[in-house]
Design goal:
By secondary structure, the protein is an alpha/beta fold. It has a single domain, classed as Nucleoside phosphorylase domain (Rossmann fold). α3 links the parallel β6 and β7. The longest helix is centred in the middle third of the chain and has 14 residues.
Length: 238
Amino acid sequence: MTPHNRADKADIASVVLAPGDPLRAKLVAEHFLRDASLVTDVRNVLGYTGFFQGRKVSVMATGMGGPSIGIYSYELFTTYDVKTIIRIGTCGGLQKQIGVGDLVYAMTASTDSAWAHQYNLKGTLSPCCDSSLLVKAVDQAQMMGYPCHAGMVFSSDLFSSYNALGEDSWKAWARMGALAQDMETYALYATAAWTQRRALSILTMTDSCVTGEGFGPDMRSKGLYPMIEVALHVALEV
């Protein structure tokens, strides 16, 4: 156990789905897993383990932002010997071709965070996903008929709507090709690289910075089902 996770090591599967929201972890456990049980609830960060088509899978929330997912992913990779983390999160779209509800796969992540300073690198780190997970996720989305896009995402310490630099601060990142903005992917990918484990960030675009369109309240759960389904089927293959 750790200060942030009360689960026994045997309670956590080798592959973990990682939403930011604890209630999304609960949703996955109740609607997608069989025989799911709550294995940790420290600080109300909920973690469950159950079975999907016979495969043992865990789903554990990570909270919001790089520091939060950094703590939980590091402990899962090291203390709990997790091999693979698949983030199932939401994002703001930065390109007009990405529709509300589309899936965004983060091939790599850029950031305004100082997260990588801890590694004492003599340059700029651009951490990337595990390529085999990405290929599986693209194939799965295409087979299921879910629109998906793969490319760079921008992981910011600042929530775009509350950015003191202005509502249009995202445009410079969009100009450089960022597909979407979230807050967690960079720290997850850097932690996976440091611990030599595998990670993939699968995001649902819920709100477009370009068009202003977004999910209504009724879609904030159901609209995430395609992302969850893809992630679970990828988990079957790892």
